[in-house]
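haha ok so turns out i had the wrong file open the whole time. this is the CORRECT one, sorry everyone. sequence first:
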Amino acid sequence: MVTLVSIKEFIYVPLMLPAFAAYLSLSPDIKEKVAKDVRMYWARTRGPVDDRSIIGMWYRLMTSNRVFRNVFYCRVGAIGRLLNIFLKEEPTLNIERSLCHNYGGGLYIAHGTSCQVYANKIGENLWMHQNVTLGMIGEGRPEIGDNVYIGTGAVVLGGIKIGNNVRIGANAIVVDNIPDNSVVVSPKGKVIKTIIPPREIQEDFVSQGG
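then structure:
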């Protein structure tokens, strides 16, 4: 039975040809990383992987998931900029292509808006959310271990090492090494002082329904 999804996938065939050629030209080790990325994205967004064809899952993700395109374009290197002409990636997600050869397979970025990925090294199976920054302090960039989860709005900065099996909570600011099997959370908000606003501010606030 023909569905809207299958029609959409058929329409995408001409646009997918350059990406397909790039995929076929990848070295075996990069293809394996792409396969791990595909399995991770499929499991998180579509359901069980089972024994589905990697190339079939890759095709469907490329035609439907902009953030996955960012990850794939990073894997193929400079040619990813050309592929972006045919199938647009998420414009607010920046993954440093010159460092992507140091990034392990299974890279999953959920809702990748406003993310900056400039880590020196990333292990297997990184799962991160939107508004995350993996960035520099001076010349130092972080190294991320295997099986790491990074929540929304977290910031990991400088030449630090994040161990394996680490969970970093939303909005955490991490500037020190984190050992394996750790959970990191942001400080709880607290009142540091009480202020008395000028009367005109109070009256304006009340007049606006505050």
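The first helix runs from residue 4 to 11.
again sry for the mixup
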